[in-house]
Amino acid sequence: QVQLVESGGGLVQAGGSLRLSCAASGRTFVSYVMGWFRQAAGKEREFVAAISGGGGSTKYADSVKGRFTISRDNAKNTVYLQMNSLKPEDTAVYYCAADRGMVLSALPQRYNYWGQGTQVTVSS
User: Fold this and answer.
1) What is the mean pLDDT of each run of 10 residues along the chain (124 residues)?
2) CA–CA separation, 34 vs 95, rounded Å?
3) Using CA atoms, how far apart are residues 79 and 29, in angstroms rounded to an integer?
4) Is the dihedral of CA 100, 102, 106, 107 positive or negative?
5) Are 99 and 114 in contact (CB under 8 A)?
């Protein structure tokens, strides 16, 4: 069982930056692919980024490439999402998720554990 707790959300102006953190419980954090997803009001949950267990491989949605960076610190059981050049369309609840598999998947149904989410609001 893995418990995930996100933090770092908030209100920011367009063009600004935020860093989200997701702290995980458990001793096997390094064995999980970690992902970030987001869900805007009235829309389906969408993939943002994923990172392999060792941190050597990453995957991004086209909408965030070049602006967002996913990273992890396995010593701290934490995954991060650095978000730069934020746009109003990035406004959403952001969720981190853990996948026991080995593939960097963009499919929410592949992920076994989810955090409660953190709100990110970007004003224009």
Assistant:
1) 95 98 92 97 97 97 98 97 98 97 94 97 97
2) 11
3) 10
4) negative
5) no
